[in-house]
Amino acid sequence: MSQMNGASSLVASLEAAGVDVMFGIPGGAILPAYDPIFSSSIRHILVRHEQGAGHAATGYAQVTGRVGVCIATSGPGATNLVTPLADAAMDSVPVVAITGQVPSVAIGTDAFQEADIRGITMPFAKHNYLITDPADIPRAIAEAFHIASTGRPGPVLVDIAKDALQKMTEFKYPASVSLKGYQPKLAPDAQSITDAADLIAQSSKPVFYVGGGVIKANASRELMELAQLLGAPVVTTLMARGAFPDSHPLNLGMPGMHGTVAAVTALQKSDLLITLGARFDDRVTGKLSSFAVHAKVIHADVDPAEIGKNRFADVAVLGDLKHTIAALIPAVKVALGKNRPDLTAWLRQMNSLKATYPLGYDVPKDGSLAPQYVIERLGKISGPQTIFAAGVGQHQMWASQFVSYENPRTWLNSGGLGTMGYAVPAAMGAKVGAPDTTVWAIDGDGCFQMTNQELTTCALNNIPIKVAIINNESLGMVRQWQTLFYEGRYSNTSLESKRIPNFPMLAEAMGCVGLSCDRPEDVDATIEKAMSINDQPVVVDFRVTRDAMVWPMVAAGASNDDILIARETAPDWDSQEL
Amino acid sequence: MAQHTLEVIVENSPGVLARVAGLFSRRAYNIERLSVGPTDNPETSKMDIVVNLEGHALEQVIAQLDKLINVIAIKEIVPNSAVPIVHDTQPDYQN
Question: Per its UniProt record, what Pfam families does this chain match (chain B) (predicted)?
């Protein structure tokens, strides 16, 4: 125990929590904390906007599995963290945000730079604190890290009044955390495992519906064993890309609004969804009442509130997925020993769909660049160890579709909140967490203009990320919907203005290498050139056709049965044996 | 629709009422009646929340409430029954 001020106690607590890096910007209310940060072992990366700090913390957490940390001052500093914290909540990412607050006597007086950030983040943060007594700092930090990283991970905010940072206190970091109202379940009940195994052994059309929870629980190896044991097809949601290798013959790809025909149909025609860390999101189910109507549901999740939220679960398995899948393996072995259904016909049907309706795209007849081709080549050339972070929109869907993900924690995106501008700062955080791995941000020109200022941070802090701007001079996904549902009335989706901004010049201005490419024959050489530069961030402006659309597509609110593989083109169901 | 009363034991700390009320608001559920009072333990308070919900919606409210870190235990007072349904996942809870 030693005497120090609250600020030093905060930094000592962060060190005790194992923090090695944090992303942030100082300001008035948090200023006392920045003095001990100056001499701390923790690497502080000075970002250019607090939103960048939040997404960087998320990117770091997604890649490392550790808690990402961001720090900001009161008022606007704190409110700028709202978007990334809401983003982290939707995608269950462990993030701790530290914010300064005005002095406790000024709270409630509309003081300069006062914002009730605890109140603002209450609806989505997993938990949050307002600390006015320096003695509470170590306990709050220990609890915040515990809550953020256990159970269903999520963001926790610790707001600390300036005077609590300034007053003297005794530093004593708690050896353990015990919260009466928070005891996440690790091991599932034995009965639920037996029930699940029994259902599996009765199913002739099972499918593994795999969500991001498998990656959060580091359960990919267990999933591989279980999937091979049963020999059932696997679909990986947008948040689960990489949880199961794309190259595996059982992997049917991504389900949902822009999923493969095989993955969408597998869920629709299945008699048993083995749901692992997925949450029946509307982008996966389409019209809920027509989703997988013949299927029974096993729903395994760490969050009890997800079970039955959108879809009734015939068997609920509550617990950490690593424990759950590990427990399922022997139970399924036993159950299959008694009764092993023949999955041959089911697999044949799904493989037929997979072969008949692979992901594809039209090559523009005018010689312009297809965005899908660029992304496909990025995946091929940079290889399966590469980490990709996408923004939100068409490029995000193509990045999910046309890169083959072989490993967990190599695909980062804003799946739940759909935050445009996620890619560059998330890639920055990812590169900090995995400095020896190639990190590509695949971004749209709309997204890129929201958060590219963090390239300055990257250039100045030796964070050499690579950015591929899929530049179609428009807000492409919105434009696609206008094409399909608004008779081509392109209201406010054109970003075209004579190549303004000039992205390579912008990149150069921020201390990065700027490249551009607008011909298919130059794509490989451009990517290889970008791959050869490892001492500076690189930005490549890929000038692609604006008319490309994301297919397949299930229109918002439509049934998954109405999946289209191109405009007004349904799969030829009559030729399929289903 | 039958009214159900949820007896919710919460930590006696600032902002807890806002958390509970906010959860109902955010998940688009109505509170029919609400009272908050002390318990024998100064560290906890008791909220009696009357809702016009049943079945799936009621289960969801209870599950979401239980996720609040400051919520320690939830009992559902069933109409015309002397025995409450205890949704208490916390074995060490002492009222």
Answer: ACT_AHAS_ss (PF22629)
Report the chain B residue with the minimal C-alpha distance to residue A132: B14
Contacts of B59 in chain A (CB under 8 A): 308
The CATH number that domain A2-171 falls under is: 3.40.50.970
Q: Give counts: helices (H), strands (E), chain A.
A: 23, 19
Which chain B residue has its CA at the smallest distance from A156's CA? Answer: B69
- Please give the helix or strand (H or E) that residue B74 lies within, else none: strand B71-77
Q: Tell me the three state secondary structure of residue A44.
A: strand
Q: Do the domains A2-171 and A371-543 sit in the same CATH topology, yes or no? A: yes
Omega before A552 within 30 of 0, i.e. cis: yes
- ipTM of the complex model: 0.91
Type of residue numbered A349: Q
3-class secondary-structure state, position B78? coil
* Set of chain A residues whose Cβ sits within 8 Å of the Cβ of B63: 304-305, 307, 309
Which distant-in-sequence residues (6+ apart) come within 8 Å of A79 by Cβ? Answer: A115, A117, A120
Task: Give residue B85's pLDDT.
Answer: 75
Determine the distance in angstroms separating the CA of B40 from the nearest CA of chain A, rounded to an integer: 17
Whether A498 contacts chain B with CB within 8 A? no
Task: Write down the H helix ranges in A180-239.
Answer: 190-202, 213-216, 220-230
b (16+ CB within 10 A) / e for A219-234: bbebbbebbeebebbb
User: Which residues share a beta bridge with A161?
Assistant: A101
Quote the Cα angle for A43-A436-A459, to 5°: 55
Sorted by where each begins, the domain ranges of chain A are 2-171, 190-356, 371-543
Hey, which residues of A are catalytic here? 50, 112-113, 162, 477
User: CATH classification of A190-356, choosing from 3.40.1280.10, 3.40.50.300, 3.40.50.1220, 3.30.43.10?
Assistant: 3.40.50.1220
Q: Is A481 exposed, middle or buried (0-12, 13-18, 19+ CB in 10 A)?
A: middle
Burial A493-517 (b: 16+ CB within 10 A, else e): bebeeeeebebbebbeebebbbbbb
Tens of pLDDT, residue by residue over A290-339, are 999 999 999 999 999 999 999 999 999 999 999 999 999 999 999 999 99
Looking at residue A314, what DSSP letter applies? S
- What are the structural domains of chain B? 4-86 (3.30.70.260)
SS3 A547: coil
Q: What is the pLDDT of residue B93?
A: 36
- Does the CB of A308 have a partner CB in chain B at under 8 Å? yes
Helix, strand, coil % over all residues of chain A, rounded to 5 = 40, 20, 40
Strands (E), A237-351: 272-276, 296-301, 315-318
Question: Is A190 exposed, middle or buried (CB count within 10 Å of its CB: 0-12, 13-18, 19+)?
Answer: exposed
Q: Helices (DSSP H) in A184-310: which residue ranges?
A: 190-202, 213-216, 220-230, 261-269, 282-285
DSSP β-bridge partners for residue A251: A234
Question: Which class does domain A371-543 fall in?
Answer: alpha beta
How far does A392 lie from chain B, in Å, by closest CA?
25
Q: Residue A377: what residue type?
A: R
Residue A308 to residue B60, Cβ atoms within 8 A:
yes
Nearest Cα neighbor of A301 from A92, A123, A94 is: A92
Q: What is the 3-state secondary structure (H, E, C) of A135-153?
A: HHHHHHHHHHHHHHHCCCC
